[in-house]
Amino acid sequence: MGRHRESERAERFRRRLKLSHTNQLKRETFYALENLRRASWPARFVGGALFALILLNAVVVFVSTQPGLDPVTADVVAGFYRFSTVCFCVEYFARIWIADLAFGNCTPSRARLRYICSPWGIIDLLSFAPNMVAWFVPVTAALGQIINMVRLVRLVKISRYMRGLRTIGRVIAKHYHEIVAAFLVIALLVVVSSVVMYEIEHPAQPDKFNNLLSGVYWAVTTVTGTGYGDLVPITPAGRIVGSVIMFLSVALVAIPGGIFSAGFVAEFQNANLRKIERDVRREDARQDGRDEAERAGVGEGAAGEGEAASDGDRRG
After folding, report:
1. What is the pTM assigned to this prediction?
2. Using CB atoms within 10 A of its CB, is residue 164 exposed (0-12), middle (13-18) or buried (19+)?
3. Which of 161, 149, 163 is nearest to 50 (CA)?
4. What is the Cα–Cα distance from 99 to 97, expressed in whole angstroms?
5. How does pLDDT run across 215-244, given as a tens digit for each residue?
């Protein structure tokens, strides 16, 4: 944990150093895309407009899926999608340009490659590339459906502006091993219970438990507590096994929830501590500035008194 925090601090220091040595246009582009609080008003306008564009895409996606749109509305939606495609393309290449500032511990070429290969880079690419390809190739019905499905990736871009989702990512990164272990235990329970239930129930109801995948489906709905009721055991042995699986699932499914809850609490506590530390450092800096000013005032006063005394000696 401490080593991870030290690496984050080192990366932030290198980022601030690079920001101080870069030109103003690149610095404001970085602030517009990554840190609106420190951006100037034109950069804030660009960043806010980009966020509003993503939200509008979320609304237009639902509007465009409605059957029987009139030609005027369909043309407006198509024009909006073309405009969004161009804007997201510009954003993608702008993020490639500022990648060396976003990843402070990498060289410029490695930072750009890191962004392009990252999940966010792939999401940003998919938000405009399929629609842009459709401008230059004939669009069949199947290709149109694929493009409409990939267009939903634009909605994922909203999560970049949500602090809570970033907190989820940090919790997963910090508790990766515990989360993986918990889900492996749940997966093991699903596999074992599906095989056992299939072997027990298949002779009694071969039309319902007709293959092993039906047993997996029953196990997943039982372990997660969904229980649709379309697939239930009818034999005494099957009901006993189902009851045991239900009791085990109550305990096992709660483990990932406990890990996430503890991680969230620790993350918000760390955020509060960091905020307190920043406030203390700012107050100390202000106090140091006031002390320096007082010492400078005292020094100037003493120098003035000394000059006055020397003038009096010369007149005497």
Report:
1. 0.64
2. exposed
3. 161
4. 6
5. 899 999 888 888 787 888 999 999 999 999
